[in-house]
Amino acid sequence: MTENIHSLFQELQRYVNWSQEDAEHLAVAAQRLEAVIPGIIDDFYSEIPKHPAAARVLTGGEAQVSRLKRSLKEWLSQLLSGPYDEKYALTRARIGQRHVEIGLDPIYANAALARLRMGLQRSLSHSLGEKDPAELAAVSEALNKALDLDLALIESAYQREYVARQRPLNLTRVRQQHILAELSQRALKEREFDNFLNEAVLLLADALLADRCEYLEYDPDTGHVCLRSAFGWDADRIGLAFPVLSGTTLEKLSRNSDMVIVDSWYAEREVLGFLGHHDEGLHTTMAVALGDEGRVRGFLAVHARRVRDWTSTDIDFFQAVAYLIATAMQRQRNEQQLRENEARLKQMVEDLPAGAVHVTEREVFVNRAIEEMTGYERTELATPEDWFARLYPEDPVAARQRYDSARASGFSLPLVTPIRCRDGHVRTIELVGHASAGDEIWLMHDVTEYQAAQERALRAERLATVGQMITGLAHESRNALQRIRAATELLEDELQYLPEAVHLLGRIQKAQEDLERLYDEVRGYASPIQLEIQRCDLVRAWGEAWSELLNIHRNRTVELRENVDGGPWIVLGDRFRLVQIFRNLLENSLAACGDPVSIEVTCRAVTHDARPTVEISVRDNGPGLSDEAQRRIFEPFFTTKTKGSGLGMAIAQRIAEAHGGQLRVGETADPGAEIILELPREMS
Prior knowledge:
Elements: H1 2-15, H2 20-33, H3 37-47, H4 52-55, H5 61-81, H6 86-102, H7 107-128, H8 133-165, H9 171-189, H10 193-207, E1 212-219, E2 224-231, E3 241-243, H11 249-255, E4 260-262, E5 284-292, E6 295-304, H12 312-350, E7 355-359, E8 364-366, H13 368-374, H14 384-391, H15 396-408, E9 415-420, E10 426-435, E11 440-446, H16 448-494, H17 499-526, E12 534-537, H18 538-552, E13 558-563, E14 570-573, H19 575-592, E15 597-608, E16 611-620, H20 627-632, H21 648-658, E17 662-665, E18 674-680
Parallel strand pairs: 13-15
Antiparallel strand pairs: 1-2, 1-6, 2-3, 4-5, 5-6, 7-8, 7-11, 9-10, 10-11, 12-14, 15-16, 16-18, 17-18
Helix pairs in contact: 1-6, 1-8, 2-5, 2-8, 3-5, 3-7, 6-8, 7-8, 7-12, 8-9, 8-12, 9-10, 9-12, 10-12, 14-15, 16-17, 18-19, 19-21
């Protein structure tokens, strides 16, 4: 017997997918319900005296009630805390056996558990409903599983004990008990309320030998009822709605949920008014209102054409079915409310302007802002491995290590990190995380433009300082340089017959000229860029720069190939400044490449960060850029040439930014280097 009960318990646990997570959720419920359990127990025992069939088992007065309250408290404690083992199953089975011993109909076990379930669920809803709807859903599901498992064990033990004790069998009562057990099992596994409701109505009508049976859904706001499920009525009446008439039994039931029995349909022809018409053949009716939290939600009724003397067993059975329907109805509303709360929460997260990411051990869920930020669809970032592989393709392992370090610190500081978007662009994001036991929430902001603005502001401040310093230095040095120039010119006449001295004098003059040019270049780099906006043809702009350079490098073997499909490539910009950019780019290629030099200029229309852009690529056949050069090419005073100030590319980048664009290093060419100029196409 013990092994059978334990095996049945284990089988039922597997059937309802009972898990350790359910036990953990019930532990949360225990904490939430600790303060309200005494009130639930008092409510439970205050209800019993109202029902004579249940109250007759209380023969020991207040001492028995106090003892039973302690037992119920222990039972609830075990329900919420476990352990859910063989001893637990035997304790539940013993309750069913005890009910047989004291002659308590199992209907009251069903009804009692339904009342306890509703009290516990109400308390959980008040405690967690708005604060944490997801947690409420998980805790409610675990609580329903535990209560339904208890009910199944109690019912099973009762049936076994009852069959063993009863000779001869009361076939009608046993059949009703089997129906209740079947309905209890269906309530345990059936997720669709309509399916359960239809089955309950059919089984109720069959067990009570009723000619008609129906469940009417009630809307207290409109005062109308709707035929939700029926046996014995025409099928076309399902879904029919009609008002509850004043003075009818339905109207009385809507104000008082006690059960009523109409012994003579003929004598009370206007009492019920079900479905707006009367069946002259009906004689006896039993009806009850179903509801919760003080609100009537519907009515359950059975009708017989012959005179029926409903027995206490029939009445208890009818009420037990009503409680099961009410419990299933409440569960449906709770689940619907949870689904709506989850849907609202999901929509709120989806509509957030910031990127939101929910991370579990094996899955990653992102909102629409993340898709827009990265260019990847959420299905492409569905796992942590996908996330790091796609957004950190250069070194996903190092990126994962940085993230693990931030997580280990509890995300005490925002994690600022670059990511590689689908279009190849690098964006800088700021990640603020919150980790719980099993998952994490990330909020992500794209701070690329903010950082760039900060860098531009800092650079502008530094440039202003440099400009002031250079202007002052150049002014103070001008007289000294002029005296050097005058002195060297006089010496040149005096030393014209000394070749070596003339040579040294020329070097002094060259150094003086280089110093003046350096002053001019630094001052030009540090000065604010003022643009003279006009319509500019990009093809003509780089063509003009190339023509100037050909005059300087006329003795070299050079080729410029242009890939300019489409067009015309017209932008609004400063023609002189754009020519200056192209001259710097082309001159760098000529300086880096040995003859024969091959330079290819490609112009195409693209979209970056949802912004129409013109992209001009300048690629040469030289040795390419070193890793250091790729990182520092736009830094002031960085150069790989033996001659030059190192300001050419820095000035070109400033001009590009003044046009709302940028310069960047393209993909590594083998051989050669590629520099890409991006200009906003909306200026065109």
